[in-house]
Specification:
single chain, alpha/beta, Rossmann fold
Length: about 250
């Protein structure tokens, strides 16, 4: 497996790529994805856990809207992870995550994930290095558990936005009416911690890679959506699913 070096990963599409042609390919992929998700739901033998990580303004919410809303909502669930509640803090850090893994036939999307417990917690010194190493081992064991015992496939996406693009998008939240609801006065302060976030993301990629990460260029939404739709379609096709026959 090729080592991920985040600082060397692209944030934009190749210059030679045609935007309109790519958007048409995405549209075709989403139509195919709709049929594959219906087949997944009907056969009920496999399940898919989609983990979406990325810095603020990398387009996590938009991705879910643009790609996953084309599927039947009966077979897709989204969990957006926020700061843990007092009840969640009274358990181990994976307790709350395990309750939102997919049943057979389902696609479960995690908007942020258990990786926050080795990312933001380290950036703000809420978690020391020794604890983080233990958590990374626990994450690997957890992901192995759900893949080996429930026919669950995990796809991990990191939306790789450039710092310049992130700052531009955060400033838009102060200027564009339709985006003001997303504004948080701490966002730009958090953005100043970019180098530290990149350091700990790199450590996450280095130590939690038994299930590989997909690094997705995220400066252009049309390219990001295309790459993720393509990965979802190829993954679901690999299940070699069939519709069940008449029940007897």
């Amino acid at each position: 497996m090729k080592k991920i070096i985040l600082s060397q990963c692209d944030t934009r599409a190749p210059k030679s790529l045609d935007k309109e042609k790519t958007k048409n390919k995405t549209k075709a992929l989403l139509e195919e994805l709709d049929g594959l998700q219906n087949l997944l739901f009907a056969e009920a033998k496999h399940s898919l856990l989609v983990i979406i990580q990325g810095m603020d303004a990398s387009g996590k919410d938009g991705l879910i809207k643009d790609v996953f809303t084309f599927m039947n909502p009966m077979g897709v669930q989204v969990k957006s992870w926020k700061a843990p509640t007092p009840e969640e803090l009274s358990h181990d850090f994976l307790w709350r995550i395990h309750q939102h893994t997919p049943a057979k036939g389902m696609i479960q999307i995690h908007n942020r994930s258990h990786y926050e417990d080795i990312l933001i917690t380290r950036v703000h010194n809420w978690c020391d290095d020794t604890t983080a190493k233990k958590r990374m081992k626990a994450i690997n064991n957890f992901e192995s558990l759900i893949t080996e015992n429930n026919d669950t496939t995990i796809i991990k996406f990191y939306l790789n936005i450039s710092h310049e693009e992130q700052v531009a998008r955060l400033k838009e939240r102060m200027e564009i009416q339709e985006k003001m609801w997303k504004y948080n006065e701490n966002d730009l302060k958090e953005s100043e911690l970019w180098p530290t976030y990149m350091k700990y993301y790199q450590e996450a990629f280095d130590n939690c890679n038994s299930i590989p990460w997909n690094i997705i260029p995220a400066d252009q939404n049309w390219f990001k959506n295309y790459l993720i739709a393509e990965k979802l379609v190829s993954t679901l096709k690999s299940f070699k699913m069939k519709y069940p026959g008449l029940k007897k």
